[in-house]
Amino acid sequence: MKATPAPKGIWKVIGASSAGTLIEWYDFYIFGALATIISTQYFPQGNPTAAFLSTLAVFATGFIVRPFGAIVFGYLGDIVGRKYTFLLTLLLMGGATFAIGILPGYQQWGIFAPILLVVLRLVQGLALGGEYGGAATYVAEHSPDGRRGFYTSFIQTTATLGLFVALGVILLCRQLLGRETFEDWGWRLPFLLSIFLVLLSYYIRVRMSESPLFAKAKSEGKLSKNPLKESFVQPENRRLVILALLGATMGQGVVWYTGQFYALFFLQRAGGVEFVTANIIIAIALLLGTPFFIFFGSLSDRIGRKPIILTGCVLAALLYYPIYQGMMYFSNPLNEVMLVILVLVQVLFVTMVYGPIAAFLVELFPTRIRYTSMSLPYHVGNGVFGGLVPFIATALVARTGNIYAGLIYPICIALLTAIIGFIWIKEKRRGTFAE
Fold first, then answer.
1. 82: Cα within 13 Å, side-chain hemisphere
2. 3-state DSSP: the chain helix, strand, coil percent, rounded to 5?
3. Residue 221 CB burial class (10 angstroms; 0-12, 13-18, ≥19)
4. What is the predicted pLDDT for the residue at 123?
5. Which residue in 91, 273, 319, 376 is a FRET match for 201, CA 20 to 30 A apart?
6. How many helices and strands (H and E) does the chain possess?
7. 317/340 Cα distance (integer angstroms)
8. Is the peptide bond between 333 and the residue preceding it cis, with omega within 30 degrees of 0?
9. Ramachandran assignment for 178, one of left (phi > 0), alpha (psi -120 to 50 degrees), beta (any other)
10. What is the pLDDT of residues 34-43, one digit of tens each?
């Protein structure tokens, strides 16, 4: 099938959508990247392991609530419009992130400090639950058939680039301020700086027009009166939502968070790699791996989304154990080059499962319920199954005393996804939208 030429202005659409989404991911992930320090600020220090687990639990709340954000903002996106919905999510995310930067710690406010931290983390999760679906849908509805995997893959880079920018800002602040000052109050600067990025992105996005497919459906009176009912009550659409979760996004989520977050925690806590060094290793691997989101997104336009996503799940499940054994081996004595390579391999798995996922999801559902229908399985898969990887893995290690026990969870979920996906998912090979 010959690819349709890109419509005029597509790169402006991608740039504006990607900039805002990158900033929201940056806001969301600086919490995780600073988890070891935040645990000393907002929880009693009698038991460092318990404090770290408590911090990971707070980190996880932002993921768990993402499906609720997907429902709320997905509904608004299908009723009001894509553009104004992800403008609102951007402001909510920015406000909550800035507030974390000025929130007093446990020594100042006692138990109220971690309680408010949880509240702000919940706001972040709700906002992100609405952001990604809006941005992916917006770009997809501007993209031509036959090239949707390529164009939406640029949105897929924003999660990794957001983490990369977060690590970069954190490392810069750490180097400029020194270790003691950074751990005392300097860790707040990455949270505070985000407000300027949010305002800039808002200015860019507010000047954009509405999605042409949504505008057309609205003018023709074809918008859904109840996208929640159509998405989750009607048997045909409900089946697609469940299959999208169990046969794609569930495995994609655990591969994403194992390769980029659990790898960071593992290097520091199991491998004993120093904070700055561990973050640099992850940052380099992310930078080297990011172009492969575009590669696999484009490849999915030619061979399909399903084989790439599920192959990534299988490879991750088969190779995690030897990869993490290698990470331990090269942590002491420290071999930065080999550690970058081992993390990069995990990032390549991430690009396989994540690069084509936006195109895969938006093509499953019709325009009238697309925002709602694709957002929920994405955020359950990523927010719940994926977001719980650091907490569950760390808890398994603490309980068993086996440093590799944490890998059991992502391996099992990835394999289960591959089995379900290979058997039951039938995708559209030509990359066209559902009617």
1. 31
2. 80, 0, 20
3. exposed
4. 92
5. 376
6. 23, 0
7. 20
8. yes
9. left
10. 888 888 899 8
Closest CA to 26 of 118, 114, 127, 116: 127
When mean pLDDT is compared across 218-222, 332-336, 355-359, the lowest value belongs to 218-222
Q: What CATH class does 10-424 carry?
A: mainly alpha
**What 3-state DSSP class applies to 233?**
coil
Q: Exposed/middle/buried for 322, CB within 10 Å: 0-12, 13-18, 19+?
A: exposed
Query: DSSP characters for 372-396?
Result: HHHHHHHHIIIIIIITTHHHHHHHH
CA angle, 349 then 350 then 352, to 5°: 65
Question: Which residue's entry shows tokens 């407000």?
Answer: 195
Instruction: Kindly indicate the confidence band of residue 390, based on its pLDDT and cuts at 50, 70 and 90.
Output: confident
Question: Between the CA of residue 282 and those of 75, 337, 345, 349, what are the distances in Å?
Answer: 36, 11, 11, 14
End-to-end CA distance of the chain: 19
Q: How confident is the model at residue 324 (pLDDT cuts 50, 70, 90)?
A: very high
pLDDT at res. 432: 65
Q: Where are the domains of the chain?
A: 10-424
Give Rg (Cα) of the chain: 21
- CA 342 and chain centroid, separation: 21
Taking alpha carbons only, the member of 193, 129, 166 closest to residue 382 is 129
